[in-house]
Automatic annotation (TrEMBL):
Localization terms from the record: Cell membrane
Protein name as annotated: ATP-binding cassette domain-containing protein
Domain of life from the UniProt record: Bacteria
GO terms of molecular function: ATP binding
Residues of the ABC transmembrane type-1 domain: 44-326
Family: Belongs to the ABC transporter superfamily.
Domain ABC transporter: 361-597
Sorted UniProt keywords: ATP-binding, Membrane, Nucleotide-binding, Transmembrane, Transmembrane helix
Annotated SMART domains: AAA
Phylogenetic classification of the source organism: Bacteria, Pseudomonadati, Pseudomonadota, Alphaproteobacteria, Hyphomicrobiales
Length: 605
């Protein structure tokens, strides 16, 4: 907790303002309503069974009252038997209705959670790169799992309990009035003595639940990050340090949860104590009424059972309130994601790209900063064009803006000034999917998914036939090593392709790009050196991929640079020189220095 938060928590003005905003705390739950209303039939059935079970449970005490007065007091065993059968019959109806209610509400809970998860996941996938720059993936997955599960529990049990308790309270109160208005008046007068302390205390639970969920999300983000980086952790022998970090966070989360549980336990205890104490008072008052003859013994028994039912339902409501507050927190966090609008979206009236594709790219006076308008420019006034089938190499020191150029071209971010065109059309005027279909992107560290080799190759074209997959694999020289794998193309390669070598992963990524068969190739060459044999294979695979395609390549290999039609030299986000390798070396400027440092000059000799 920050110092600010600590002082805010102990600030009486703050507490008063929190109390005033109390009804707003449950407001996020309203956002669940559309998800629930999608299933009107199941919802109606739930309410129907809920009413049947509540009404039948409310009938039992009245019958019991009759059995006492007409059976026990009148000493008529036949009446006791008749009433007994009636109670068994009603109990059977109640049992069936309760079971059905439980089933339907649980199914709705599962359904809502599945819908919510799907909605949040597909929304997340559509959000732009900038969103992921500022949000931890581990935290997002924790929202997707933990928060949705707590919503499921709420819908499946808390909502149902709240509804049932409310019906019971109303029904029991009505029956109490019917049985004895005087006794009911006594209860109603005593009621605020229970309710006020409970409501005041329930407020304390607020905030606590959001804090425990935040602590949990932090914990999950930390685990995701460290387990994902387990090789780095081992190699830097950070197992113990990271375990200690995790333990500290886990203890924080534990303490926050214990604090919340303590507060809840106290709340439940408070309700039970106040409820029981009032009941004792009621029995005393009721006994006097029986002795005075204003109510019968049966009526008193019946009244007491109703009062017990109502107080039990009140206890439930207090528990549910605590629960619902934490669910409101979870709902708020999920709807926060759903409410985040994507900034980079399709234009209202998209312009079609020319068919067949030309494969040209133009940057016209492009400036860009990651901080939006007014931030420090990462690219300034960059202009260049790439003609059909040409290869343009981007070179420059680290941080000069090479990767940013490729990101802007794919519209992962929007430019702050200037225009980027593909096939002569401003990319902001084109549908995003149409634009991205024009590129095959091979990343520096290729992303390999946990599926099979074939699934990885098919990633950009899921409906490709096996013959197409094999053709791409052959061109990318993946076929050679696949032949040695136990299950061939159906071999599962492990998370992030851990079962493959660096060169094999690169060739697999190249095969994926070949299968996509896009007119423009965006290539971020690996900086890490492969052994000569592997390097040669990757190079060969790349040559197949580049054939007949316009290529923009962030180049680290001398061979690539030498073959490029044009080299753009970037420095500090500006193009400081352009030309062929020989021209630029002859000039002897910044490029020549860079070439010495960056490209494996050994290759040149
Ligand atoms: N997502 C991001 N958010 C904020 N700043 C970023 C982001 N990505 C890159 N930058 C910054 O933009 C500048 C250019 O980065 P870029 O990755 O384009 O350089 P690069 O030339 O590709 O470098 P390298 O060769 O090291 O990959 C750097 O100063 C970097 O810190």
């Amino acid at each position: 907790m920050t110092d600010q938060a600590v002082s805010a928590a102990s600030d009486p003005d703050k507490i008063v303002s929190e109390v005033k905003s109390a009804p707003r705390q449950l407001q996020p739950l309203r956002r669940l309503l559309p998800f629930l209303l999608r299933y009107p039939v199941r919802l109606a059935l739930t309410i129907l069974f809920l009413l049947i079970s509540a009404i039948s449970s409310l009938a039992i005490p009245a019958i019991l009252g009759g059995a006492i007065d007409e059976g026990f007091v009148a000493q008529n065993i036949d009446m006791v038997g008749q009433y007994g059968w009636l109670i068994i019959g009603i109990a059977a109806i109640m049992a069936v209705a309760s079971g059905a209610r439980f089933y339907f509400i649980s199914v709705i809970g599962e359904r809502v959670v599945a819908d919510l998860r799907q909605a949040v996941f597909s929304h997340l996938l559509r959000l732009e790169t900038r969103y992921f720059d500022t949000h931890r993936v581990g935290e997002l997955t924790s929202r997707l799992n933990g928060d949705t599960v707590s919503i499921r529990n709420a819908v499946g049990s808390s909502f149902s309990l709240a509804l049932r308790s409310m019906v019971t309270i109303i029904g029991a109160l009505a029956m109490m009035i019917l049985t004895s208005p005087v006794l009911t008046l006594a209860v109603v007068v005593a009621l605020p003595a229970i309710l006020i302390p409970v409501m005041v205390y329930a407020r304390r639970l607020r905030g606590m639940s959001r804090r425990t969920q935040d602590a949990l999300a932090d914990l999950s983000a930390m685990a995701t990050e460290m387990l994902g980086a387990n090789r780095t952790v081992k190699s830097f022998t950070q197992e113990e340090v990271q375990a200690v970090h995790y333990n500290v966070s886990s203890e924080t989360s534990y303490r926050a949860e214990v604090k919340r549980l303590g507060a809840r336990a106290f709340l439940v205890g408070l309700v039970i104590f106040l409820g029981t104490a009032s009941l004792v008072g009621l029995v005393w008052w009721g006994a006097r009424s029986v002795f005075e003859g204003s109510v019968t013994a049966g009526q008193l028994a019946q009244f007491l059972v109703y009062a017990l039912m109502a107080s039990g339902a009140l206890t439930n409501v207090s528990e549910v309130l605590g629960n619902l507050q934490s669910v409101a927190g979870a709902t708020e966090r999920l709807t926060e994601i759903l409410d985040t609008d994507a900034e980079i979206v399709d234009p209202a009236v998209p312009v079609a790209l020319p068919e067949p594709p030309l494969g040209t790219v133009t940057f016209d006076k492009v400036s860009f900063s990651y901080g939006g308008q007014g931030g420090d420019n990462v690219l300034s006034n960059v202009s260049f064009s790439v003609g059909k089938g040409e290869t343009v190499a981007l070179v420059g020191p680290s941080g000069s803006g090479k990767s940013t150029t490729l990101s802007l071209l794919q519209r992962f971010y929007d430019v702050n000034a200037g225009t980027i065109s593909v096939d002569g059309v401003d990319i902001r005027k084109v549908r995003l999917s149409d634009l991205r279909q024009r590129f095959a992107y091979v990343e520096q560290e290729p992303i390999i998914f946990a599926g099979t080799i074939a699934e990885n190759i098919r990633f950009g074209k899921p409906d490709a036939g096996m013959d197409e997959v094999i053709a791409a694999a052959k061109a990318a020289l993946v076929d050679d090593f696949v032949a040695d794998l136990p299950k061939g193309y159906d071999t599962v390669v492990g998370e992030r392709g851990v079962m493959l070598s660096g060169g094999q992963k690169q060739r697999l990524a190249i095969a994926r790009a070949i299968l996509k068969n896009a007119p423009i190739l965006l290539l971020d060459e690996a900086t890490s050196a492969l052994d000569a044999q592997s390097e040669r294979l990757v190079q060969l695979a790349l040559e197949h991929l580049m054939e007949g395609r316009t290529t923009l390549v962030i180049a680290h290999r001398l061979a690539t640079i030498r073959d490029a039609n044009t080299i753009l030299v970037l420095d500090g986000g500006e193009i400081i020189d352009k030309g062929t390798h020989d021209q630029l070396v002859a000039k002897g400027g910044r490029y020549a220095e860079l070439a010495k440092l960056q490209f494996r000059l050994a290759e040149a000799v």
